[in-house]
Amino acid sequence: MNEDSLSLVVASNSAYEIWKCLEEHYLASTKEQEIQLKGQLSIKRGSNESLEDFLKKFKSTCDNLTAIRKPLDDLDKVFQLSRVVGSRYQSYNLAVLLKPPYPTFRQYILGLQNTERDLKEFEEEYRE
């Protein structure tokens, strides 16, 4: 335990009191982190940002939420990602999210990657 934490619990008489004291102290910072991380999940993909880079950031933010014990379930991740990934994937989103059964987060990402590949191939053919 670091010195800051130790100074918080020095007057505690039981493990329960120590736990409650630490929980009250650190809960505020955890809540702030949760709000900040959830805010990051609602930032739309930039027009010059690759899908892969965007997905890495999104997954990392989800992992950070899990690390502070505030994980999103698969369906929340799917719908949150669908809102911020961009209009380029609107047709894909309509096809897979219009009605249940909904894809898992992994399935949704694989579908996005396949859609991206198909769109790039179409754009290359169109240029020729």
TrEMBL record:
Name of the protein this chain belongs to: Retrotransposon gag domain-containing protein
**From which source organism is this entry?**
Rubroshorea leprosula
